[in-house]
Amino acid sequence: MRPVKLQIWDLAVAYPAGASCVTALEGINLTVHQGEKVVILGPSGCGKSTLLKTVGGFERPTRGTVLLDGRPVTAPGPDRAFVFQEFDQLFPWKTVVENLTFALKVARGIGAAEAWQRASEVLAMVGLSEWGRFYPHQLSGGMKMRVAIARALALQPALLLMDEPFAALDAQSRSGLQSLLNRMVAETRQTLLFVTHSIEEALVIGDRIVVMSARPGRIKQILEPTYTGLSLLERSEGAELRRQIRELLDQEAEEKAS
Amino acid sequence: MKSGLNKMAVVLVLLLLWEGYVRIAHVSPLLLPAPSRVLVGLGVYLENGALLRYTWQTLKMLLAGMGIGMLTAFGLTVLATTSRWGRDLLLTLTSIMNPLPGIALLPLALLWLGIGPRSLLFVIANSVVWAVALNLHTGFETVPLTWRRVGQNLGLRGWGLIRHVYLPAALPYLLTGTKIAWSFGWRTVIAAELVFGASGQAGGLGWMINLERYNLNTTGVFCGLVTIILLGFLAEAFFEAVEAWTIRRWGMSAG
What we know:
Helix content of chain B: over 70%
Number of strands of chain A: 10
Strand order of the largest sheet of chain A: 6-7-8-3-9-10
Radius of gyration of chain B: 22 Å
Structural class of chain B: mainly alpha
CATH class of the largest domain in chain B: Mainly Alpha
Order of helices and strands of chain A: EEEHEEEHHHEHEHEEH
Oligomer: heterodimer
Shape of chain A: globular
Number of strands of chain B: 0
Largest sheet of chain A: 6 strands, mixed
Radius of gyration of chain A: 18 Å
């Protein structure tokens, strides 16, 4: 068995709402191993984004702990590189390549020459070598997202966190970026925690799929496909998993309705 | 470009009307000198270096006062962004001080700091600080959460986060604030110089205008006014260039 990267233990997160509290997450237990791609899937409002932000250090747990390489997570840090949902997560006052070198200098203390070298490498990986000198506002949404992924990967984090990064893209760019992500994560042996509300996306990306239920957010079931990648969707196993997940989510919706 | 040409044509027509009226009606140059006379006067002032001295004196005071005012505004804004009481302090002080024209504090400044450059700097800085603080505060408050989180994710905290994320992200507001500061400060410095004349040995443009009135040299008064107008144009062109070089090139805008 591969070593444990991330361990979430009895995690609960609650927000103050007026005089009372809204429980966003409750009783979350999850272990992510080195090099694993874990997808968190659920309906909107199930707390999947809160879970990711808690691992990222942006939210504080009300109960329980998050351990990264055995150490508790207390604040945001570059060992958990975060790719956000918004296109506009690059700094507009820096060129594409400056966005990457700045991140490397600040987060990893890397010198200018080496930062530039590494930035060029990851830009080539996401197919944007020609765009380094451009400013973010000159790029399309999909290109901005590729730069954001390149920035996160350049940091060589212990854990890569992605919060519905492809949700705002058109279908064609989305499937292109999903394959690109799979390829790059495989090349870099990166550990990935990925949040989505799309069943197809979960099947394409996840080694394991964590299905969540809403209000309070809990883990409903964890599925382990024997195969990952785009072609899973065409196999009978993919169809079976899709049916199974849809059933879990429908069951959820019915319970809420009654 | 076309509107620029149109404006030039309007100015030219007005100048010709003015020149014609003065010549035909034989207006005394003590009351209204013709533009041609003002032009000659400007030449004389430039040649003996007096105009440059006055201008430099005024600009020196204005830039120093703006510098003090903007640094104070920055300090207040950082306090207001990082603490609750700092925010209350800034908003209360701004609402009290903002409606007060900067020049109204000049008598107090003279009482406290005496007649001299310190009083001048005080009123200029005061006329600048609230407008800049208010704009910069709005800029800091509206920095998108995602950029702040990206900064935190890279490990930036405190001062690093302010320097690398808040300040550049708030640049559109900072520029707006600086433009307002310039125009407030400009009005204040000229008015203050009119009131108490020279600071120390050197006088500025406001002092020059008042002095030439005493001397019944109306042409000199007009030379001072024309210089002030031209400097205003230059400042506008400067801010325009800065905006083109920064926020427009980066596709950023306020609000």
